[in-house]
């Protein structure tokens, strides 16, 4: 007998950080708002929908965001509040299922094929979850409901904010066919550009290429793209999957040579990384620097501490020290990356002493 399809829901809070700030401070409601650093090296963690109309986006440098939206208001993030609200939302999820895979503080997959209330309709469950989130947190969430993770995640973005999109098994392939490949989860910006250069703009274009063609151009990822274009994804929802590392890296149009340019970019990467660390709650004891040279050779350097790094200053200071130890570089750097490994999700006993550790 054929196995019945799964019932997967992807819940994505709407402009989560910004919405929390607007909820807690009525004077910010209806305003173009960015959460993050507004200084020369600041980065936007998230933006309200009022700001997004001007093109302000997550991970955008604060200076550029201000140019796009001169009236933009910046507020510093309050991650302890976001984590508290996220815990409230997770508790709502747990009323329906224990098979929950958080992706970050503001989004998660839920497998409700078999659920606690015994509700047959995944759409009804998603609507009930959205209602409870609104009532208990004062915030809105969007939902994607489908038979696999790939399509559920794409669907949750279709009717944002405060919307729901349901894609049934018989409609999955057609749903993907209309999707720009750059929006398909698992196709990164670099791969999307390579696909576009090959004339692959949409899911339909991707489906028109056979597996041999995709293997020739995309190697080991070809099978995923081949199946994704047909609306196929067998990945299960993993309960509370643990991260092994958190990192940020950036490739540059022009290779970086001078110490000033290298440190400036590394500081920006460190600030972006700290936002991800705070968002995920995954603090690491080992800071890792990655440098890719113009000839594509890669080196990594690391420094470990006795406890998890819980200071953005220590993170940036360690990254700079690791980089300066390699100067002058043998040739220009085309990529810089910074990450934390050996993650520790427990609260440290003496986190306040970390700033005294020597580098």
TrEMBL record:
The keyword Zinc-finger does not apply. Keywords: Cytoplasm, DNA damage, DNA repair, DNA replication, DNA-binding, DNA-directed DNA polymerase, Magnesium, Metal-binding, Mutator protein, Nucleotidyltransferase, Transferase. It is an enzyme of class 2 (transferase). Binds 2 magnesium ions per subunit. Belongs to the DNA polymerase type-Y family. Monomer. This is DNA polymerase IV. It comes from Sphingobium fuliginis (strain ATCC 27551).
